[in-house]
Amino acid sequence: MTMQRNELMTWLQQELAVDMFKDYAPNGLQLQGKAEIGHITCAVTASLAAIEAAIENGSDLLLVHHGWFWKSEPTVITDWKFKRIQTAMQAGLNIAGYHLPLDAHPVLGNNAQLGKVLGLELLSQFGHQNLLAEGVLPEVQSLQELTNKIENVLARTPTVIGNPAQSIKRVAWCTGGAQGYFQEAIDAGVDAYITGEISESQYHLARETGVAFVSAGHHATEKFGVQALAKYIETHHGIGFQFFDEQNPA
Ligand SMILES: [Zn+2]
Question: Where are the transmembrane segments (predicted)?
Fold first, then answer.
């Protein structure tokens, strides 16, 4: 099956409620390629390696969580950025990115999908632009048990601040670089907070509040949303996809 690129983009914009978010990168089509989409490669980030994989896969669209043109990024098209854009353009590859809308989507989002793979029941979304998720484990576990589960599911050893024996039932989480929301999670009264990265200050906050902090990897925690989205496109429009699983330890 194929679909007109513009039709797919309009559909995705509605499905992901893009207009409800204030973001620091453009959501949707970022680089125009072929007018028809017959195959998709999805990836966490629109890196050169992901672009090359998409071309190798014969895809017409590279669908990512981390696209380009971040507010903090230089606006000129030189060096590594030139190489990425040139490579994609020569192949007629479309590039579309969905950032916060794909973090917060209640079903397809990175938060919802991470909760699912970790066996957390999603009870509510809260905080800035609904970017935090809150839920419960099916039964009380020790922090060590939760750590083991995260390590198994994400195939990556997390950094954990807390007493391995402490009991965990209520958990808040936010995928990616959301260590700055730890205080909101503490205020919500949870036993543990899971995110992708850690900075120096979270160590002390965890120690002094007794709320466990788990840094499970930015890339590792954000692998699931874009795959759920590609699967959703396949289900609704019959467009096949492949996931490019870049080995990024960060
Ligand atoms: Zn991210």
Answer: none
- Ligand 1 mean position, distance from CA 177 (Å): 6
How many A from CA of 95 to the centre of ligand 1? 17
Beta carbons within 8 Å of 164's beta carbon, 6+ residues apart? 142, 143, 144, 147
Q: What is the pLDDT along the chain (250 residues), one digit of tens a residue?
A: 999 999 999 999 999 999 999 999 999 999 999 999 999 999 999 999 999 999 999 999 999 999 999 999 989 999 999 999 999 999 999 999 999 999 999 999 999 999 999 999 999 999 999 999 999 999 999 999 999 999 999 999 999 999 999 999 999 999 999 999 999 999 999 999 999 999 999 999 999 999 999 999 999 999 999 999 999 999 999 999 999 999 999 9
CA of 250 to the centre of ligand 1 (A): 11
Architecture of domain 106-218: 3-Layer(aba) Sandwich (3.40)
Rounded distance from Cα 196 to ligand 1 centre (Å): 8
Q: Taking a C-beta distance cutoff of 8 angstroms, is the pair 146, 214 a contact?
A: yes
- The CATH number of domain 3-103, selected from 3.40.50.1820, 3.30.70.1520, 3.90.1150.10, 3.40.1390.30: 3.40.1390.30
- Residues 240 and 40 sit within 8 Å (Cβ to Cβ): yes
